[in-house]
Amino acid sequence: MNHDALFAPLQLGTIKVQNRIIMAPLTRMRAGTGNVPTALNAKYYAQRASAGLIIAEGTAVSHQGQGYPGAPGIYTEDQINGWRSVTDAVHSKRGRIFLQIAHNGRNSHSSLLPQNSLPVAPSAIPPDLPAFTNEFKQVPTETPRALETDEISTIVDTFVQAALNAIEAGFDGVEVQAANSHLIDQFLQDGTNKRTDEYGGIAENRVRFLLEVVDKVSAAVGINRLGVRLSPFGQYGGIHDSNPLHLYGIAISALDKRQIAYLHLIEGRGSEIGLGDGLHEEALNNAQLFRSNFRGPLISAAAYTPSSATQTVSKGEADGIAFGRLFIANPDLVERIRDGLPMNKYDRSTFYGGGEHGYTDYPVAI
Ligand SMILES: Cc1cc2nc3c(=O)[nH]c(=O)nc-3n(C[C@H](O)[C@H](O)[C@H](O)COP(=O)(O)O)c2cc1C
Predict the structure, then answer these.
(1) Distance of alpha carbon 173 from alpha carbon 139, whole angstroms
(2) What's CA 317's distance to the chain center, in Å?
(3) Which of 102, 114, 181, 356 lies 20 to 30 A from 244 at CA?
(4) For residue 72, what pLDDT is reported?
(5) Residue 122 near residue 194, CB atoms below 8 Å
(6) Residue 331 CA, ligand 1 centroid: distance in Å
(7) Which percentage of the chain shows pLDDT scores above 90?
(8) Which of 22, 23, 26, 68 to mutate to test ligand 1, by most ligand atoms within 8 A of the CB atom?
(9) Alpha-carbon distance 222 to 37, whole Å?
C-alpha cells in the first residue's frame, strides 16, 4: 500500500512537521531520582526523532500532580535541565517535540505526593483502578480529597508555570492532558464531577477548568504552541459522562474558537491507554463525530495500523495519526511505514519501569 498521505508536511501552530506519523505520549516510568529525565530518556526519544512530532510522555505540572513512580515532572530546575538534554537530542536529529503536561488528580497515591497527602479531585470519588505507590507496588486507590474552589486557580497556575518551564527546556510546544481520566478529564465528566460551584453542574461549567488552563497557558506561551488531548467516551478508571456528545461538542467548539495548534482525540475503538489488545468495534468514531466542530489540525490516536492511518488521513477524517505501542517497539516506525517493512512486536511486560530493556533496545530494521 502506498502511504504517501502520511508523508505530506503539516502545519501545527508555529511548526511545520515533515510527516503525519506522530509519536503518542507514552508514560514509561523511567525518569531518574527527583522525577528528572536522564540520558537514557534522551536516547529513547532521539531514536524516535523521525516522527513528524513526538509528544513526550505525561509529565507532572507539580509535585501534587504526580501520579506514577518514575514519571517525570517539569516543576524543578533539575527537571528542566533533564528535559533540555532530551529536546537537544531530538532537535539535533531534526525532530520536533511537544511535552504533555498533566495533573493526575485522583489516579495518584499519597506515597507520591507532598507530605503524603491524599490525591485531589473535583469530588471525593475514587477511581476503579489500582494506584502505583512510590515503590512501584500496585495497591487499591484512595478516596481523593475534593478540591476547594479557591485551590483551582492555583492548579491552573501550575499548568502555566509548567508550560513556561517546558519552553525553557526547549520544547516546541505543550499538549494539555485533558484525556484518560486525568484531573482535567475528571472535571469534564459528570461521573467524577459532582461539584456545586461554578466548576460543576452543567457542561459549560465542567469545561471551565480546561478552558482556564488553555487560556492562561496560551497567554503565557502562545496559542500556536498549545495542543489539547481529549478522550471522548473514554472509560479508563471508571470515568463516565451522562452525555459525552454534548459535553465534548461544547469543549471542542470552545477549543476551535481559540485556534489551538491542534486537537488530539483518542478513539474508543482501541484501549485509551493501550492496556489491552482487543478492539471495541462498536465504538463511535470520534474523529468523524467531532471533525465538524473543529477546523484546525486534528490528530487521531488508538489502534491504528499503517493502512488504517493512511485511509483516515486520505479521507480527511484526521490530519495526523498518533501511534503508541507501535512506536514503543519500532524506533524507526516512520521508515518502516515508508518502506513497507515488518514491525517488531511490543513487549507489554516492559512498558512501565525498568531500564534500557524494552526501551532503547528495540532493533531498527536496516
Ligand atoms: C505504556 C503506555 C503509556 C501511556 N502513557 C500515556 C500518557 O502518558 N499520556 C496519554 O495521554 N496517553 C498515554 N497512553 C495512551 C497512548 O498515548 C495511546 O493513546 C494508546 O496507546 C493507544 O494508541 P496505540 O493503539 O497506537 O497504542 C499510554 C499508552 C501506553 C501503552
Answers:
(1) 34
(2) 20
(3) 102
(4) 98
(5) yes
(6) 16
(7) 93
(8) 26
(9) 25
Fold of 4-350: TIM Barrel (3.20.20)
Please identify every stretch of the chain with a pLDDT value under 70, giving residue numbers as ranges.
272-274
**Burial 157-175, CB ≥16 within 10 A → b, else e:** bbbbbbbbbbbebbbbbbb
- DSSP secondary structure of 79-96: HHHHHHHHHHHHHHTT--
The reported pLDDT for the residue numbered 274 is 67
Q: What is the pLDDT of residues 229-250, one digit of tens each?
A: 999 998 888 999 999 999 999 9
Residue whose C-alpha is closest to residue 352's, from 24, 102, 31: 31
Strand, coil or helix: 305: coil
Q: Virtual CA dihedral for 160, 162, 168, 172, nearest 10 degrees?
A: -90
SS3 for 121?
Answer: strand
Whole-Å CA distances, 54 to 51, 172, 203, 264, 336: 6, 10, 32, 13, 17
Domain coordinates in residue numbering, the chain: 4-350
* Grid cell in block for residue 170: 526547549
Secondary structure (DSSP) of 27-75: -----BGGGB--HHHHHHHHHTTTSSEEEEEEEESSGGG--STT--BSS
Give the up-direction half-sphere exposure of residue 321: CA atoms within 13 A in the CB hemisphere: 29
Please give the pLDDT value at position 272: 65
| Element containing residue 11 per DSSP (H, E) | strand 10-12
**What is the model's pLDDT at position 334?**
98
Give the pLDDT confidence score for residue 273 in this predicted structure: 67
Regarding the beta carbon of 100 and ligand 1, being less than 6 Å apart is answered: yes
359 Cα–ligand 1 center, Å: 15
Atom number of ligand 1 nearest to Cα 327: 26
Amino acid type, 16: K
**Residue 14, Cβ neighbours under 10 Å: how many?**
12
Q: Which of 22, 27, 271, 346 to mutate to test the pocket of ligand 1 (most atoms within 8 A of CB)?
A: 27
